[in-house]
Each structure stands twice: as structure tokens, then as C-alpha cells.
């Protein structure tokens, strides 16, 4: 089995560059460099090189993803960001497994928090929330679970609050029903909930 000796080690942009010869070098995060106990003069076999390279790609993917996760992301969003960064597919999958195992990525939790915030803070209905979560690559079953507690009674109550705040206080509601319906549909409310609220006014 062919072996190569580490000829030089240098630091470049927060990575350790390990030069084996004029043609082969490895750019590694510090954690990988330490984990494999690399030093000048150490000899590495072909399998060692492959393992170190894969570990380095995986760690780079994890580090990049963790920076992006300062703002919550779905699994699909993280995969897409890593892919656009040009990271190897195997490294992406390994990084995602790591992030899920350690609780950094959790689509179920994300969907529940997202649905709650969009409902309470943005005043969105279930149709729009479902659409937005789908756009973020969340599984249909997880979306359904996240919206499970958004009952029709809750939806009607929220529609009523929006209508009262936006229209009833200042305008003649009966003259603007078409406009109101369009607005509420754009907010993602079911027509049945809108109709239930507007039917209370002539």
C-alpha cells in the first residue's frame, strides 16, 4: 500500500492546509486536524487519506450549517444551502445526520414553532402556513401535525379579530365584503371560516 509523508502544514483562512507533495494537499478544520493527530513527517496510507478527506468535508459541512442555523432552518433548506456551497453529497448527508442526532435540525419542532408564530404574530391562516412550510420542504405529515391544533373555531376567532381590527371600526362592512374576502383568502384562511364571520353582518 502506498504511503505519503506530510511535508508541510500551514494555516489558511481558519483551515489547516496539509501538504503531502506538490500535487496533493488537504484543507481541514482544526477539529479534524487534531482528531487525526496530524503533524509534519507523519506517514499516511491511502485509506488514511480517504478517511481524513471525508471527515474534513463532513466537518466543513457541519460548521457551515451551524452558522446558517443561527436562524432556524428546515432539513431541506440546510441541504440546499450546502449543495449551493458546492459541498459533496456524502458530506451533506453525513452533516445532516449529525445535526439531527444532536438536535440542531428538527423539522417537527420547526413546523410547530413556525405555524404558531405565523398564526399568532403574522395573523396567517392554515392554508398559507401549509403552503409556506411546503415551500421549505417540510413533510406533509409534519405539516398536518403542526396545524392539528389550529381548529376551525380558532380560525374563525382569528378571522373575526382581523375583520374587527381592520374594517369594522372605521368602515361600513357590508360595502366592502368582496375586498375583505380577497384579503382574508390571501392571508390563507378557508372560505368557510371567512363566510362564518361575515355572515354575521348584513
TrEMBL record:
The keyword Cytoplasm applies. One of its GO terms (cellular component) is cytoplasm. Residues 153-198 form the RecX third three-helical domain. InterPro entries: RecX_HTH_2nd, RecX_HTH_3rd, Regulatory_RecX, WH-like_DNA-bd_sf. Residues 106-147 form the RecX second three-helical domain. It is found in: Cytoplasm. Its main location: cytoplasm. Keywords: Cytoplasm. GO terms for biological process: regulation of DNA repair. Coiled coil: none annotated. Pfam families: RecX_HTH2, RecX_HTH3. Gene3D superfamilies: Winged helix-like DNA-binding domain superfamily/Winged helix DNA-binding domain. Belongs to the RecX family. Modulates RecA activity. This is Regulatory protein RecX. The lineage of its organism: Bacteria, Bacillati, Bacillota, Tissierellia, Tissierellales.
Amino acid at each position: 500500500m502506498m504511503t505519503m509523508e506530510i511535508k508541510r502544514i500551514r494555516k489558511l483562512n481558519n483551515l489547516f492546509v496539509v501538504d503531502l507533495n506538490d500535487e496533493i494537499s488537504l484543507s481541514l478544520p482544526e477539529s479534524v486536524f487534531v482528531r487525526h493527530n496530524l503533524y509534519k513527517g507523519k506517514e499516511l496510507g491511502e485509506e488514511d487519506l480517504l478517511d481524513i478527506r471525508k471527515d474534513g468535508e463532513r466537518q466543513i459541512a457541519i460548521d457551515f450549517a451551524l452558522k446558517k442555523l443561527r436562524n432556524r432552518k428546515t432539513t431541506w433548506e440546510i441541504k440546499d444551502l450546502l449543495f449551493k456551497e458546492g459541498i459533496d453529497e456524502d458530506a451533506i448527508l453525513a452533516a445532516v445526520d449529525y445535526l439531527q442526532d444532536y438536535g440542531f435540525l428538527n423539522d417537527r419542532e420547526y413546523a410547530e414553532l413556525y405555524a404558531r408564530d405565523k398564526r399568532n404574530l403574522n395573523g396567517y391562516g392554515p392554508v398559507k402556513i401549509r403552503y409556506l412550510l411546503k415551500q421549505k420542504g417540510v413533510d406533509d405529515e409534519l405539516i398536518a401535525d403542526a396545524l392539528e391544533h389550529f381548529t376551525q373555531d380558532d380560525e374563525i376567532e382569528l378571522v373575526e379579530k382581523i375583520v374587527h381590527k381592520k374594517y369594522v371600526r372605521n368602515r361600513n362592512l357590508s360595502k366592502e365584503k368582496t375586498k375583505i374576502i380577497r384579503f382574508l383568502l390571501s392571508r390563507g384562511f378557508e372560505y368557510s371560516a371567512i363566510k362564518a364571520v361575515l355572515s354575521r353582518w348584513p
